[in-house]
Structures are given as structure tokens and as C-alpha cells.
Design brief:
Layout: H1 6-10, H2 18-32, H3 42-56, H4 59-66, E1 90-91, H5 105-115, E2 126-130, E3 136-140, E4 147-153, H6 155-160, E5 162-173, E6 179-190, E7 199-202, E8 218-224, E9 230-233, E10 236-243, H7 245-250, E11 252-256, E12 263-267, E13 276-279, E14 292-298, H8 306-318, H9 332-340, E15 347-349, H10 350-357, H11 361-369, E16 375-377, E17 384-386, H12 389-403, H13 407-429
Parallel strand pairs: 4-8, 10-14
Antiparallel strand pairs: 1-4, 2-3, 5-6, 7-8, 9-10, 11-12, 13-14, 15-17, 16-17
Helix pairs in contact: 2-3, 12-13
Length: 442
């Protein structure tokens, strides 16, 4: 929504008196009334003036509006800060008879909720008594207006109940017609189990009544202060709970904070990110009480040491895990496995080989010089290779990454791995396990 500068709309200073605001509105109303002014934008200006006057004529709404500060510009994108009106005291639930639907979204965002609240104090009756000579003297009795304010409390106070001192800002008109704000301090009792949006009623703390009318009440609407750990929905409380990958995979019993103190929670093996664990009855006290929900958030340790990096590399080698499988993306291990089944008869060019393996041409030529791979033809840039050369290059990349060796070292390591593979193949063919041998006791 767009911010509306009500003072600018009426053409008055922020320090203007209530009489100056009234005169400015009347002048604009006469100028832009649709029955008088037929300009295309006259009706819009007439409505804007009426909305501005609706706020600034009322000391309570004007004081609350002033709390937003003077740094906003007319037409600037605006969203009311959370609990922006906390601590401001208003008389009556709506404190006006105007229909908020006739005003802008900006007005609705600031005052619409209060204007749909409970009405002013109830109408009073009249008492009559007979005077001398038939003169009828009438006394007028009317209850005082109810007042409303929003107060912000900590979530823990809703769990345990508390006694607190609060200070409310009460707008008044001084002798010069300017709006001033005075502080009003009250001691209140916060009942255990109160929820956001509920109200505490302080009897007799509203406006005084007229005649023998009872004073109005003060209703304090409860809002929760933002909490660094917990968020609240109704009487349920939510916590994003960090756990380690091994706690998620293997299961664990861990301590979990609640507004009342830490409790033990059992994490089942195989838990995944976003899984919600319910702690029954650990929400805001009620009948029945709310629940607390721990939403699992798996935190990955940093690879900030050689040992940590080696552990991650070992996991990469030993755990065939591809979190992107559902997206149709293959892991490197799967790509290598797929490469193995490529027919040896297929040939690819040097350019295709470097592009597929994402390596430099010079590095491939070094591998050729060391005998790691062999081209089927030796026509320089037109070299053609067996498709299985892709697998050899991928093995060479892994050795260079894991061992940090140069190309001659890669060639030596691959020779040893080839011999081991050859030996294992021969043993499997002979149906002999490498670690079992027949022997005779001496």
C-alpha cells in the first residue's frame, strides 16, 4: 500500500492546532466537493481530504498516526510495522462512527481493525424528579467510554502468568489546541494461558461516567514480542530444531528448549529435514493445552580441516547417495557407471572427450604421453579415442583430487589399480577368495 501524508493532503504543518486542521479541511471540502467542482480529480481530492480529516481531527488517531514518524513520503510504499500501535490508549472500540470501507487501504491497515471493534460505552438513562411549581429537573446518567490498548508481552509470561507494570500513551488536547501525549502507568496481572489477540479487562479504568453512570473499562489486547526461537500459532508453539546428520540418520535422544525449560526428545532413525516432532501438551497452557512442534533442520558440519575434508571424501566414496535423483540428474558415480557400458567400438574426438570430462586439452595430451589413455588415430587435433577413455579420465580426475598427485603419479596409480582389478578378475574366475587358502597343519 502507499503511505498517505495526511498533513500534506490538508496543507498544514504537523504542529497545527485542531482548529487549524478543521479550517483547512472545510476549505478543501468546499473547493473539491463534486457538486461544485467538475474537474476529473476533484472527487479523489475530496475523499482524500475527508480521510485525512477523519484521522487528524481525533486526538487519539492523530497521536497514533504521529507515532509512525515524519520520515515517510506521500506515495511511498508502506507496510505498518508489527504492533505499531502497542502502548497507545484509545477510547471506545471504534472511537468513531465512520465507515472504514470508504477510506483507502492505508487507513484500513492502520485503523480498520479498531473501528470494527466494540462500540463506545452504552447509552445512559435519565432520571426525573419533580421540583417546586411543577418545574421538572432532569439528571442525565451515562456510562463512561471503554478504552482499548495493545500491550506486548513475552511468550514465557503466557506460560507462567506474571505481574507487570505497563505504560500507556494517552493523547490529550492542551489549552492551545495542540495534541499532547502523557504517560499512564498501570500494574496488571497477566493470566497463565493467555493467547495472542485475547484481552485483559481492567474494570473502571476507562473514561468516567456522566452523572451516576459507571466509568468505562480498559481492554488490553495481548500481542507476543518476537522470540528468537519460537513462533506461535493459536495455542501451539513451533521451534526450528537443528540436528546433526548422524542424529538424523542414526537417531538420538537430545535436549530441546521450551518456554518452560528443556525437555528430552527422541529423534527416530532415518529422520529427514522438515519432519515435525510433536511434544504433546508443551504449548500454551489451556484446557486442553496446546502442543509444541519441533521442526527438524539438519545442519551440515563445515569442512574446515583436512580431517573433516577426508571424512567427507570417504562419505562420497562409500555412500552412493544422490539427492537430485528425483530431478533426473545423475551423480558422478552414476555417470561413471553409465560410461562403463558404452561400447568399446564407439569412438569420440578429442574435442568431445575434453568437453564431456570438462578438462583441458593439454591435460589430456599429458595423459596420452604417460600412457593413461591411447588414441586410436594420431592425427593431432583429430585424434579419436575409444569411448571407454572417458572412464579412464574420470578415474584420473578422482586420483588427482584425492591424492594431489601429478600426471606421472596418476599413471603409476592407475597401473597398480589395473593390476589389482586383473588379479581380482582372475581370482573370481577361479572361484577362489583372496583371503582364504587351503593349508595343512604341521
Amino acid at each position: 500500500m502507499e503511505y498517505k501524508d495526511y498533513y500534506k493532503i490538508l496543507g498544514v504543518e504537523r504542529t497545527a492546532t485542531q482548529d487549524e486542521i478543521k479550517r483547512a479541511y472545510r476549505k478543501l471540502a468546499r473547493t473539491y466537493h463534486p457538486d461544485v467542482n467538475k474537474e476529473p480529480d476533484a472527487e479523489t481530492k475530496f475523499k482524500d481530504a475527508g480521510e485525512a480529516y477523519e484521522v487528524l481531527k481525533d486526538p487519539e488517531k492523530r497521536a497514533a498516526y504521529n507515532e509512525l514518524g515524519a520520515n515517510w513520503q506521500q506515495g511511498q510504499q508502506f507496510r505498518p510495522p508489527p504492533n505499531w500501535d502497542a502502548g497507545s490508549e484509545f477510547s471506545g472500540g471504534g472511537y468513531t462512527d465512520a465507515d472504514p470501507s470508504q477510506f483507502s487501504d492505508f487507513f484500513e491497515g492502520l485503523f480498520g481493525e479498531r473501528m470494527r471493534g466494540t462500540g463506545r460505552g452504552g447509552a445512559g438513562g435519565t432520571g426525573a424528579g419533580a421540583g417546586r411549581g411543577g418545574y421538572q429537573r432532569r439528571e442525565f446518567h451515562m456510562p463512561g467510554e471503554d478504552h482499548h490498548a495493545k500491550v506486548v508481552i513475552n511468550l514465557r509470561d503466557a506460560y507462567t502468568g506474571a505481574k507487570r507494570e505497563i505504560t500507556l500513551r494517552v493523547p490529550e488536547l492542551d489549552d492551545t489546541g495542540h495534541v499532547t501525549v502523557k504517560d499512564r502507568t498501570l500494574s496488571i496481572t497477566i493470566p497463565k494461558g493467555i493467547r495472542e489477540g485475547q484481552s485483559i479487562r481492567l474494570a473502571g479504568q476507562g473514561s468516567p461516567g456522566m452523572g451516576k453512570g459507571q466509568p468505562g473499562d480498559l481492554y488490553l489486547e495481548i500481542a507476543f514480542a518476537p522470540d528468537p526461537h519460537f513462533r506461535v500459532e493459536g495455542k501451539d508453539v513451533y521451534l526450528d530444531l537443528p540436528i546433526t546428520p548422524w542424529e538424523a540418520a542414526l537417531g538420538a535422544s537430545i535436549k530441546v528448549p521450551t518456554p518452560e525449560g528443556a525437555v528430552m526428545l527422541k529423534i527416530p532413525p532415518g529422520s529427514t529435514k522438515g519432519r515435525t516432532m510433536r511434544l504433546k501438551g508443551k504449548g500454551i497452557p489451556s484446557n486442553p493445552p496446546g502442543d509444541m512442534h519441533a521442526v527438524l533442520k539438519i545442519e551440515t558440519p563445515a569442512a574446515d580441516s583436512d580431517k573433516a575434508k577426508e571424512l567427507y571424501k570417504e562419505m562420497e566414496r562409500e555412500l552412493p547417495f544422490n539427492p537430485r535423483a528425483s530431478l533426473g540428474v545423475r551423480s558422478m558415480a552414476e555417470q561413471q557407471k553409465q560410461s562403463v557400458i558404452i561400447l568399446d567400438e564407439e569412438e569420440i574426438t578429442l574435442a568431445d572427450l575434453t568437453r564431456t570430462c570438462r578438462v583441458r586439452t593439454e591435460w589430456v595430451m599429458e595423459l596420452v604421453d604417460e600412457g593413461v589413455i591411447e588414441p586410436r588415430s594420431h592425427a593431432g587435433p583429430q585424434w579419436r579415442f575409444s569411448a571407454t577413455s572417458i572412464v579412464r579420465i574420470q578415474k584420473a580426475q578422482r586420483l588427482q583430487s584425492d591424492l594431489g598427485v601429478n600426471v606421472p603419479g596418476i599413471a603409476l596409480a592407475l597401473q597398480l589399480l589395473d593390476r589389482i582389478d586383473n588379479l581380482e578378475s582372475r581370482l573370481r574366475a577361479a572361484s577362489v577368495r583372496p583371503d582364504l587358502h587351503d593349508h595343512d597343519d604341521d
